Amino acid sequence: MRQAAIAAAVVAVACSRDASPALGSRAQAGPLPRGLHVEGSALIDAGRAVRLLGVNHSGGEYACVKAGGYSVFDSAADDALVGAMLGWRVNTVRLPLNEACWLGLAGVKPAYAGAAYRSAVSAFVARFRRRGVYVVLDLHWSAPGTNVPTEQQPMADEDHSPDFWRSVAATFKADAGVIFDVFNEPYLSPENIVGGVDPWECLARGCTAKLQRGLEGTYRTAGTQALVDAVRSTGAQNVVLVPGLAFTSDLSGWLTHAPNDATGNLAASLHLYNFNACTNAACWDAQLLPVAARVPLVAGELGEDDCAHGFIDAFMGWADRTKTSYLGWTWNVWGCNKGPSLVSDLAGTPTPFGEGLRDHLRASHDAGL
Asked: Are 186 and 257 in contact (CB under 8 A)?
C-alpha cells in the first residue's frame, strides 16, 4: 500500500480512538479502574497509554507432561532470566500454561502439578512483577475428560477450562498487571466441528468438536464467553485477551463475536508469522485496523521461520504506527528456524531472527514508543 494510504488509515484509527464508542467501554458507572485496564482501544496504566512489548517464554505448557524429563519449566526461571529479558527492554512476558498441570488432574505427576505447579507459576509471576514487567498467562494446552494435554486441541474444553480460569483468576486478581489470555490458538473449522455450526459461533458460544493430534472422539468446547465469565465470576477485572480463528491469525469475525463483558477490559489476541495468510501492510490495514480501532490489539506471538527479521521488522513498524502491542516468539534455545527462537542462550544472546526484535525493542524504548 502506498505511504499516503497507510497514513490515512492510521489517521482513521486515531480518530476512531477519540470519537467512537468501543467494545472496551465500561458498561456501568463505578470506581475508576486501578492498574492496567482498557479505555476505548487503548491499554491504560496510571493514566498513561501502554503497549505490551516483549517476548514469550515457552515451557510451562509442556515440561510438566514431558515424558523422560519432567519439570514445571524447561529452564531456570530465576532473576537472571528476568535481567536478561530486561536487557532487551521488554515490558511484558507471556507464559504458556497447561490446564491439567495447574489443576492437578489425573495423569500428571504430582511433583509437577497442582500446588507445586501453581506455586512455581506464582513465583515466576512475582519475580517479573517486582521488576515492573507485565505478565500474560496463556491457556496453551488443554484436553477434556481424563485425557492428558500433550498437544493443543482446536479449542478449550468445557470439562476443565472454565475451572482453570476460575482458579487462575482467583490467584492473580489482586494484580492488574497480570493479563489473562483465555486460549492460545483456536483452529476450529468445518472439518473438526460436529453438526455444521459456524466456526465463529462455536468460538464464542461453544460446540461439539473432534479431538485432534493423537486423541480420538469428540468433546464439548468452552466458548470465549464461558471463559471470560469464569474469570469475571471471581471478581477479577484483569485485562483479558480474546482470540480469533485460524490459530488466531484471522480476526475477521472478532468484533461481531466478542464476549459480553461488563468490565470492558477485553483486548483482541493476534498471532502473526510469515507463513500466515495475512503478511503485508495492505492486508493488515484491511483486516486488523478495524479491530484496532475498537479494542486494544495484542500480537501475543510474532515471528518468522527463516532466521531473518525482515517480516517482523515490517510488522513492528506497522504496529508502532497503529499502537499495536507485540510479543516475540520465543525466548527458548531451539534454533531460529524451529519454534522460532529469539535467543541462542538464556542470557539473551540473540539469534539472527532475535536481533531484529531486540534492536527494535531497544529503539522503541529509547524513543518512548
From this structure: no
Q: Could you tell me if 352 and 335 are in contact, meaning their C-beta atoms sit under 8 angstroms apart? A: no
**Which pLDDT score, from 0 to 100, does residue 20 have?**
34
Query: Left (φ > 0), alpha (ψ -120 to 50) or beta: where does 21 sit?
Result: beta
> At CA 13, angle to CA 360 and CA 11, rounded to 5?
85
Look up the pTM and report it.
0.92
- Residue 270 gets which letter from DSSP? E
Cβ neighbours for 15, distance < 8 A, ≥ 6 positions apart? none
Q: Does domain 50-367 have CATH number 3.20.20.80?
A: yes
Task: Round to whole Å and give the CA distance between 242 and 287.
Answer: 16
Residue 302 near residue 329, CB atoms below 8 Å: yes
Mean pLDDT by 10 residues, the chain (369 residues): 34 37 46 80 97 98 88 92 98 98 95 96 98 98 97 98 98 98 98 97 98 96 98 98 98 98 98 96 97 98 98 98 98 93 97 98 86
- Cβ-based neighbour number of residue 241 at 10 Å: 26
C-alpha cell at 363: 529503539
Q: Which three cell numbers stand for residue 271?
A: 498471532
User: Domain map of the chain by residue range?
Assistant: 50-367
Q: What is the 3-state secondary structure (H, E, C) of 196-212?
A: CCCHHHHHHHCCEEECC
